[in-house]
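Translate structure to sequence.
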């Protein structure tokens, strides 16, 4: 029995959108503790994948005349069999951060320091 609300559960049946730009990524899962003692987990996306996200974000800024909050880009992410909607965020050094919620970490048995491979659909 799961006590997670439906919006918190990984959606294994949700397909990645067909009409958007897709890219593969890999990076280490890292734990980040905020100033209010909140804990988040992110995969740092670098290299060619990060360049593709930055190009997409730039084109969206040109198209809409402004950036999304915190410079984020909406994505549909897939790691293993889990898929979820989220956003990636620039970290200021050319890389992007993909937040990975607890339900995904549990479903895919990944932990701090693990190499994570997956796919993003930029939406």
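Result:
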């Amino acid at each position: 029995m799961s006590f997670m609300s439906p919006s918190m559960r990984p959606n294994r049946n949700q397909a990645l959108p067909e009409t958007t730009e897709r890219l593969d990524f890999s990076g280490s899962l890292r734990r980040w503790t905020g100033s209010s003692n909140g804990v988040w987990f992110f995969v740092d996306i670098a290299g060619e994948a990060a360049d593709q996200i930055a190009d997409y974000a730039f084109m969206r800024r040109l198209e809409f005349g402004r950036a999304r909050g915190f410079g984020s880009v909406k994505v549909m992410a897939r790691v293993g069999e889990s898929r979820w909607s989220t956003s990636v965020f620039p970290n200021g050094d050319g890389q992007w951060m993909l937040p990975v919620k607890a339900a995904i970490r549990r479903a895919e048995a990944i932990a701090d320091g693990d190499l994570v491979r997956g796919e993003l659909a930029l939406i």
